[in-house]
């Protein structure tokens, strides 16, 4: 697990206590927060003292101090070239390629009152294409967290966020779209408590997420049939068997409430999930975590069949040297669909990523993932492939350079005409300014 000691986030010997515990308290000191308003059971980020995530003395922005508030502004400017802007099938003469200017301002502010801590962050992404202006984007998000101890061994975390973005073409969110991009606005809030009983810990959580889909310029059909609210609660418990092993279990009760209440398409459902697993430090250089669970959706309408299925996740992290980190992940999951004619999507995914600190201020990263989506009710499936390579160079505390090459591909089965086969390559170069 990750702990906060003296204001410095460190990694303890007990390893990856399974990656979904949002809050741990130890000795009355608030030690870590992972807020998950969407209630997706995912793993923690890599520990902060390994390649790709460690702080670099002499290259970290110092920020500004304004009346006791620490403020960290940053700005990214660059250009991106996309070989297939609309994610269409065909040869290079049949698809549209274009370049876009990118501006991304970011701001993070934090304030500490003893052990109580508040943090607010925001970002905006402006992407302006030179020719395919219908694909211009203006994403933005705001996130706020208040967290701290209540008493010895007990802590809390309150989080709220708003996010407005476009659904990328060629993804499950926008496969059936045509015309302008589909906009997604997400409002979420979460309240979590945690208590430690020696080696055992429990963390109850309440959450709500509201998602609103829109057509950016009204060029496509009304997207309100996708709008939904997901709300419920979760209880997580864990037990550290030793310094290198821990067991955990999670139970979730929630509801999907869709705005579309037509008799044909009412997808309101009750959601239940149980999951359990363990994390284990195989050696000082290899950590692992495995979980298995079952999820079930009970639809209120007879037009959709109830569905349930296994949820499996495994991860291995390897740190062969202090300059290299390797992560392997595999998971299988089943979830509700964004489309009115599809009740559920079964997803199977495998991924690998590697970080290498070639120099103290130069980090190289590469990753590849493959996902198989199986859509219920229409006997269709899609395979998706993502790969990228990036280099991040820090000139000093305030200036950096990032370059990235990314590939995305999609292939659908022959009996599934709603999705087309496509692939695209994106090349990005950015300057990063930070204070």
CATH fold descriptor:
Porin
* Through-space gap between termini: 30 Å
Shape type:
globular
Strand percent estimate: over 45%
Count of domain modules = 1
Structural class: mainly beta
Main sheet record? 18 strands, antiparallel, barrel
CATH-defined architecture: Beta Barrel
* CATH class term: Mainly Beta
The amount of helix comes to under 10%
Q: What would you report as the Rg, rounded to the nearest angstrom? A: 22 Å
Note the total helix count. 0
Give me the count of strands.
23
Low-confidence stretches: 1-46
Q: What order do the helices and strands follow? A: EEEEEEEEEEEEEEEEEEEEEEE
Key terms:
435 residues; mainly beta; Porin; 18-stranded antiparallel barrel; two-stranded antiparallel ribbon; disordered N terminus
Can you characterise this structure?
This protein has one domain (2-434): Beta Barrel (Porin). The chain has 435 residues and is an all-beta fold. It is built from no helices and 23 strands. Helix content is 0%, strand content 64%. A hairpin with a 2-residue loop joins strand 1 (2-5) and strand 2. The chain has an 18-stranded antiparallel beta barrel. Strands 1-2 form a two-stranded antiparallel sheet. A two-stranded antiparallel sheet has the order 3-4. The radius of gyration is 22 Å and the shape is globular. InterPro entries: BBP2_2 (IPR018759). This is Outer membrane beta-barrel protein. It comes from Hyphococcus aureus. It holds the Pfam family BBP2_2.
